[in-house]
Design a protein that fits this description.
343 residues, alpha/beta, 27% strand, disordered C terminus
């Protein structure tokens, strides 16, 4: 065994960063490495849409500078994609096949844009705004576009819709009831959302589906199954997120849609924990695995996973807000509480 631990954290969002800071506070001598597939340090995802509308400066997107990692003796490797975890050798492999050994591992790899199976044929025509890279690539195009089509309807989608409306864009949104995994919208919810969004100067399509998306030289044509046709400059898919865990599949770590962990955030493998939106947490009360969303929950889970990795036995509880208001519809964000008990 090595003289000092090497803690590896996969993921550079709020869960991963707060896990790293907690580990450093409790273990001054250990090696700590954060591995991120993005080429930018820890940033505020919730501010990306305001950046598109020039309401937030680029410098204000960054939460933690490269220098701050050095000050805490935390190594961060950016633009490095993890492809495999080998449990027997306690090692991970990066995309270029570099092998890195760990003594303890925290998976906080977050989520990526989710494409509905029915839309995979049109993936090349769709844009996303779920990452720093997405927004840097599309900001200028969005500002220059006149007509935009949004397919989906998650939290980011509705915020984006309102921002585009305020920017004077001609926007159409098709709300899909399956856009907000792990939550589903029923017919009454859709009607309520439609009513609230009707206050905006946008076109709203519900209880319909995309039939085709065709790319032309300078525009896209979108046709629905009910025969609605739209000619637009850009098409965006905003259908929630899916856990980013491909590297863990086949490793021996249990997973469903996300990494399965108990109420202490421990996986089925000793010395490996998972937290944030890539994790599905077991709730003993309902005997099922559920997820949580939102920055405060990710922060809480990152801290808790680090403490338990170091020998704690704390049970994760919800942090901050219990739900988001999705255009008048309460969407539960926490894994532990029952939203029906709240006023």
């Amino acid at each position: 065994m090595p003289d000092i631990d090497h803690y590896i954290i996969i993921g550079n969002g709020p869960a991963g960063n707060h896990a790293a800071i907690t580990l450093r506070k409790k273990d001054e001598d250990a090696r700590i490495t954060i591995i991120s597939d993005e080429c930018v340090p820890f940033y505020y995802k919730p501010r990306l849409i305001n950046f598109i509308a020039d309401k937030t400066d680029k410098k204000d997107l960054i939460v933690r500078s490269i220098e701050s990692y050095k000050e805490k003796d935390i190594r961060i490797r950016m633009g490095q994609k993890v492809t495999q975890i080998h449990l027997d050798s306690k090692s991970i492999f990066l995309q270029h096949m570099e092998k890195i050994n760990y003594t303890k591992l925290i998976i906080a790899s977050g989520s990526r844009a989710r494409i509905l199976p029915s839309m995979t044929a049109y993936a090349a025509h769709m844009n996303f705004i779920t990452s720093y890279t997405d927004v840097m690539e599309y900001k200028k195009k969005i500002q220059e576009a006149n007509k935009i089509f949004i397919f989906g309807g998650d939290l980011v989608g509705f915020k984006f819709l309102k921002t585009l409306d305020a920017m004077g864009k001609e926007v159409t949104i098709m709300i899909d009831p399956n856009a907000f995994w792990p939550f589903n919208l029923n017919s009454n919810m859709l009607d309520k959302i439609f009513s609230n969004l009707s206050k905006l100067n946008v076109s709203i399509i519900i209880k319909d589906a995309i039939s085709t998306i065709e790319k032309h030289e300078n525009f896209f044509s979108v046709t629905t199954r009910k025969g609605i046709e739209k000619t637009v400059d850009m098409v965006f898919s905003l259908n929630g997120l899916t856990p980013n865990i491909e590297f863990a599949k086949g490793s021996g770590i249990d997973y469903d849609r996300g990494i399965l962990v108990n109420e202490h955030l421990k996986t089925n493998v000793n010395s490996i924990y998972a937290c944030g939106s890539c994790a599905q947490i077991y709730n003993p009360s309902i005997r099922s695995y559920t997820t949580s969303i939102g920055w405060p929950n990710a922060v809480s889970q990152g801290e808790m996973s680090a403490l338990n990795l170091l020998g704690g036995h704390k049970v994760i509880k919800a942090a901050g807000r219990k739900y988001f208001d999705l255009e008048g519809v309460k969407i539960k964000t926490t894994w532990w509480e029952d939203i029906d008990d709240e006023s």
